[in-house]
Amino acid sequence: MKAILLDLFSSFKKAKPWKKVLLVFLLLMNLFFFTTAVIKVNYEVLTPGSINSIVNTNAEANDYWVLKIDTDNSPGNVNTVGVYHHKKISYFQYLISKLSDKIDLAPFDPKTDTTKEEDIIRGDLQKDYSIDYALIVAYEAAKEIDPNIHIEYSFQGLRVLAVNRDSRSGLKPGDLITKIDGRSFEKADEFRTILEEFSGDDVIKLEILRNGETLELDSQMMETEDGYKLGIQIHEKMTIDPNKTKPKFERNNKLQSRGPSGGAMMALAIYNALTDKDITKGKVIIGTGEIALDGTVGAIGGVPQKIATAALYGADIFFIGEDNYEEALAAYQEMKALFKPGFRLIKVKEFKDIISELEALP
Q1: Does the pLDDT value for residue 89 go beyond 50?
Q2: Are 191 and 320 found together in one domain?
Q3: Which has the closest alpha carbon to 328: 307, 311, 343, 344?
Q4: pTM of this prediction?
């Protein structure tokens, strides 16, 4: 190795000046790209992503699916849309991100912000309940068209999605809270009402399910700017009885996306697969918005990036909740030339608004 290096050095000394300059330049460029790719900076970036098909039926199968519904109907070309989110990016990624107004760049504080691992856990838990809620909303809506369609579900407790680092609750993401102070509850608001009876260093007995095992925790609240809190993020967990649900469905356990923002479009694809009439009418439909049990389409993040993604994938229609509509409209106006002629950005408040808009299509 030493001999090789000496030979290279000798060749460099004998080289013509312009070759020396070129070699030094190339070495510096390689060093620059290597350094910027390795050095990490405390920023997070949100970029346009991709779309995903949702439902397979006996009549139509996609390579990727979230649910299989046992019907002979078409789910339509209905898609969820996602973005790419990276934390603690390389300096090279930071420089590239500064070049595009379609990329969101924000400071990342590793001491206070959630880690990538915590985001993955929360995102998977959110995806789980969003699928349940989409099934319930779609089956209940389709039942109004066909009384043979049926779904049974029940409240199981409160799923813990995330836990503050200073929380004294003893809870972990994925835990299911079933009782507080020995009392059952039927919804999150009832839980919060009971929780208001406690403060400071009071011990709150929580009964939970963790990995199939029932545990009792002695929890305490943490002091925040808004008063005493458990320091957790929760969501109501519903369980669907597959044996009493008709038509039957199957869930894919190997999903490519996370988070709750695909709820509204999942509900639409399920509804279209359950009913005989294809209300999508051959349109490429993309949209975003969390779905609540009452059908409300909720707010989500990453709107400009999702609008950009819809343009890349040739959307005919993009559905967006009313809370995000103005942001979506502004993003659309900036990149209007990228969309196909006749594209429509449609604001909706509830799931029934999506159905009404599609049924009104010529």
Answers
A1: yes
A2: no
A3: 307
A4: 0.88
